[in-house]
Amino acid sequence: MPGSIESLILPRNFYRRPVQTVARELLGKRLVRQIGNQSAGGYITEAEAYDGENDQACHAHSGKTQRNAMMYGEAGRAYVYFTYGMHWMLNCVSADDGYPAAVLIRAIYPVEGINIIKKNRPGVREPLWCNGPAKLTKALEISGDLNGIDLCDPGSSLRIEEGIEIPDKDIQISARVGIQSTPEPWLSMPWRFFTEVPENLKKKV
DNA sequence: TCTTCGATTGTCT
DNA sequence: GACAATCGAAGAA
């Protein structure tokens, strides 16, 4: 058992590829949040790519600021930011180190630490626990103090591990959502990747 | 069931 | 001072 956890963690080179590729391949991977001596998490089912300063929907489009500085950093780290006055968003910094690109994790299918997730999502029914970017951060107690955490470090309280294979035929692609004020062509870029909560995931639980 | 709208605060201009 | 990579309650059909 010892050592096996480390080998499951995605290596930094996984993130050092075009963000669209990283977003696609993050589907089915396992997001793990360590809370005290418990862990909670699940399989990623939805992700979006944000690609550099040219991408008008990307936070880096108007240059480097204090908020988005993390996106310019090392691939494989978390970029966590606050929006709408009440919501945290979780991103994985991707592409080359120093190039501002990140993948927004929009949804997961929880399989671990259900008691923790239930506690954090009172009064909410199962399918709605983590099916939105702000929902999953709340369910997993992710907030600004995790900004910049290394997702490749087995000692981190937030990491991404190997999960299950999602075949191409089960993956759907669309334009990104929640960026209504973004001009074309960025508005229509097919950089959102998602999958139905699949039968093979359910069997595995 | 579907659509509209209010909440609430950090960050940038 | 305006706005934001959203959620979920409330009201309409």
Strand content: 25-35%
Largest sheet: 8 strands, antiparallel
Q: What is the element string, with H for helices and E for strands?
A: HHHEEEEEHHEEEH
Arithmetic mean pLDDT:
92
Low-confidence regions:
none
Label the structural class. Answer: alpha+beta
Taking the alpha carbons of the first and last residues, their distance comes to 20 Å
Helical proportion, percent range: 10-25%
Query: If helices are DSSP runs of H or I spanning 4 or more residues, what is the number of helices?
Result: 6
Overall description:
The chain is of the alpha+beta class and 205 residues long. It has helices at 4-8, 12-15, 19-26, 114-120, 133-139, 199-204, and strands spanning 30-35, 38-51, 78-83, 87-93, 101-112, 158-161, 171-174, 192-195. Strands 1, 2, 3, 4, 5, 6, 7 and 8 form an 8-stranded antiparallel β-sheet that branches. The model has no long low-confidence stretch (mean pLDDT 92). The structure holds a DNA duplex (13 and 13 nucleotides).
